[in-house]
Specification:
CATH class of the largest domain: Alpha Beta
Shape: globular
Number of helices: 3
Length: about 180
């Protein structure tokens, strides 16, 4: 069965600093027309920093759209679509937490809301951490703290970490370490 949709026309509705909103006319697999509204984003990275003693380095940060302070792993957008995601992850990790890792491992991609939002978040695990000084952006305010990985897993499963990329990274790293025999 054919599932792809064919773009007939595309119109930029809004061109912002971080996102671009489009309205496209498409042809559905059955030949009928439809409209698709979606947001394009340059892309982002997120990093789960794990200390040698099993602590996850997390951040508390106010998120305007939800009017809440959320707990998340370090993350940030790419500077350009061509930026190497690994280098972006290293940059964001050092800026937000001051951490320089000895090892960085790619964990896969996270697509938070693929029906309307074209942001691809590349996920990483950072190990062998050296702590240095933060280099926060002018408009960045966050609190860095640590939590045992097992506690983060429990909070993710209990719905106490609502950020999707954080949930997925915590659970993926936990499963990976279990498979490697490094935790029960």
């Amino acid at each position: 069965m054919r599932l792809e949709e064919k773009t007939i026309s595309s119109k930029l509705i809004y061109d912002g600093k971080v996102v671009k909103l489009y309205e496209d006319e498409v042809e559905l697999p059955n030949g009928r027309p439809a409209t698709r509204e979606y947001v394009r984003h340059v892309g982002a990275v997120c990093i789960l920093p794990l200390t040698d003693d099993g602590q996850v380095v997390l951040e508390r940060q106010y998120r305007y759209p939800f009017d809440e302070i959320l707990t998340e792993i370090p993350a940030g957008k790419l500077d350009s679509p061509d930026e190497d995601p690994t280098l972006a992850a290293l940059r964001e990790l050092q800026e937000e937490t001051g951490i320089v890792p000895r090892e960085i491992v790619y964990l896969g991609d996270y697509l938070g809301s693929p029906a309307i939002f074209g942001e691809r978040i590349r996920m990483f695990l950072a190990r062998g951490l050296t702590f240095r000084e933060q280099k926060l952006d002018e408009d960045e305010f966050l609190e860095v703290f640590q939590m045992p990985l097992q506690e983060a897993v429990e909070k993710a499963l209990a719905g106490e970490l609502p950020d999707g990329k954080t949930q997925l990274a915590v659970l993926r790293v936990h499963a990976m370490l279990q498979k490697e025999g490094k935790i029960q």
